[in-house]
Amino acid sequence: MYKNVVIITRIALLFVLAAVLILTGFMTSLQPGHSLINVSLAEDMAEAAPFTAEVHNASEATVYSGAVSVSTKSVLAPATAVKEKKHSAKTVYLTFDDGPSGLTGEVLDILKKSGIKATFFVLGEQAAVRPELIARIFEEGHAIGNHTYNHEYNKLYEKFQEFWRQVKQTEETIRLITGVRPQLVRAPGGTAGKFDETYFRLLKQGGYQVFDWNVDSGDSKRRGVPAEEILKGATTPVSGNEAIVLLHDGAGHEETVKALPGIIAFYKEKGYNFDVLTPEMEPVQFKLHSNVKTKQEQPGSRWIAENVAHNAALFKQGRTLAVDMGGLATEFAPGEYRMENGKFMVPLRSAVERLGGGVFWKAESRTVQVSLTDARWEADPIKGTMTLSGIRGKTAVSEVKFIGHTVWVPIRDVLEISGHPVKDVVSGGDVYRIVTL
Ligand SMILES: [Zn+2]
């Protein structure tokens, strides 16, 4: 009898231990990038995979391959987000304008904790002074849109040429940080009363997608709008299944940050999915006001031919890059990877995480620690090397490098050092497929 009790107790203990292990693994997998332990399972990948396909990036015809903007959805996206997606057709798009600022980090922390993605319409001049926040927004899978360079109404709405100049300047600033061009545009103050027909027409011709909103949180009506009022505004009922909520993460919007958890809780409670805006969506735009005067100075046909006519080609879809690695597979949409000197370059973090591994940024040495399948290695973007850990440790020269603030690597070297050397690269139709041994 006593013996049976001991056996039962032992079995029970084993179950508890197993549960703890599974739970620990699960928690760790919710924090990609902060884990040195490779905890992601093939099942996780299979379940989350359909949503990783919704990546819309853009780029330059030759250097990069495809089109713009930004939702790199992590394969390790929390299970709750996946579940919600299956069960509801209602979607809320939280959008943050005027950043990045000193508040953006807090906003990103809240979004991360809630396991949701949002869209940031950033100002070029803010992006230029806080590139690390642009890189973080990008790496954490949020969408980045263009909100012009300096937000100055009198210049922006005096003539289209100035609006265009600021869009391009901001686009270049963001491209240097993340490697991709934002295709989404939001007009400072919204299009209402500010855009004439030319603005709408030429931005569209240039390949951009202009988004206004249908829910105004009211957080920029005046200075210091209190959090309760912002919460009320941001949860105003909307007709239809899509809510595009206007919020601000620019300087001085502390109350918006305070209101954010309540706004998220409200939409979760109502069964909404949270998603990022994409250039493929039908945009929400205010109707062109009949009382908006056509701007006095209109761009001439020569200016349009030189500036706008070829711009949309920057966002053309190119080929997908597919990687099959020992039973694990992932894809990079056009614009998510770049071709350089005949090498396929990919962002290190997203490549490793999508293949089920983990990365950890080591600030002291400015290197990236990587665990992928059974391999542990270090990438050094300054020296341009990869070093395998442990007794087999060897250093290989690789074109690991910073592009802006993001570390990029040749995918071939990643696979090789992780014990899966490339057997074949097949190109056919609209896909390059890398197959490993
Ligand atoms: Zn704004």
From TrEMBL:
GO biological process: carbohydrate metabolic process
One of the Pfam families matching this protein, by short name: Cu_amine_oxidN1
Domain NodB homology, residue spans: 90-275
Matches recorded under SUPFAM superfamilies: Copper amine oxidase, domain N, Glycoside hydrolase/deacetylase
Gene Ontology terms, MF aspect: hydrolase activity, acting on carbon-nitrogen (but not peptide) bonds
Name recorded for this polypeptide: Peptidoglycan/xylan/chitin deacetylase, PgdA/CDA1 family
Organism: Paenibacillus uliginis N3/975
